[in-house]
């Protein structure tokens, strides 16, 4: 377990103590009934090599991680929220989970947990970027970028109407050395427009070089 003593995340400020069991059960029930909640996993699967090592950063209840595991990828789910991880482990025990602060995940931490140290894809779906502790976003992106293989991809999705804006995200990614490769308005490849309510970004790490640790 790797948790720092930094300020609370926006997620913790809004949702600490909430019981997410009903929320997770609803997704599991609807998935069993054929409702499509698999858009993120399909999107990420297309980007990844077969049998890729994928880090689900901010994995929550494990839905996306499980979808990637079903597609044959080696997935590690990381989250700071112990309650969400307990639900993930109960519903999707086939996935490896690690409780950690996203800004503190290192190759050493992953190695000690028996997980891959580098990843072909780091996925940050589900509004994770806008629920981080205020001011920590660049540090988190730096930490996650260092876990990518050369030329690996970092993929994020978040709402555009929060305090942390797309322009802030782009500036942080540029500072870290991540290059924007694709941008969409949904996980279903709807074209990006400046007034879109959601942004999906695909960024690539430099090939043959480590990202700038700042």
From TrEMBL:
It comes from the Bacteria. InterPro entries: Methyltransf_25, SAM-dependent_MTases_sf. Residues 54-152 form the Methyltransferase domain. GO terms for molecular function: methyltransferase activity. SUPFAM superfamilies: S-adenosyl-L-methionine-dependent methyltransferases. One of its GO terms (biological process) is methylation. This is Class I SAM-dependent methyltransferase. It comes from Nakamurella flavida.
């Amino acid at each position: 377990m790797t948790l720092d003593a930094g300020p609370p995340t926006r997620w913790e400020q809004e949702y600490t103590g909430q019981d997410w069991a009903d929320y997770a059960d609803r997704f599991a029930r609807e998935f069993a009934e054929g409702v499509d909640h698999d858009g993120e996993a399909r999107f990420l699967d297309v980007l990844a090599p077969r049998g890729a090592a994928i880090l689900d950063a901010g994995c929550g209840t494990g839905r996306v991680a499980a979808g990637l595991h079903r597609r044959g990828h080696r997935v590690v789910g990381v989250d700071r929220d112990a309650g969400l991880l307990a639900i993930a482990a109960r519903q999707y025990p086939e996935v490896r989970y690690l409780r950690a602060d996203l800004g503190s995940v290192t190759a050493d931490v992953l190695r000690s947990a028996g997980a891959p140290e580098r990843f072909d894809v780091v996925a940050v779906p589900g509004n994770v970027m806008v629920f981080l502790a205020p001011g920590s976003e660049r540090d988190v992106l730096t930490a996650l970028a260092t876990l990518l293989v050369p030329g690996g991809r970092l993929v994020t999705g978040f709402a555009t109407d929060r305090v942390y804006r797309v322009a802030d995200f782009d500036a942080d990614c540029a500072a870290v050395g991540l290059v924007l490769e694709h941008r969409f308005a949904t996980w279903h490849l709807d074209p990006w427009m400046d007034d879109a309510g959601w942004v999906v970004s695909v960024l690539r790490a430099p090939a043959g070089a480590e990202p700038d640790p700042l």
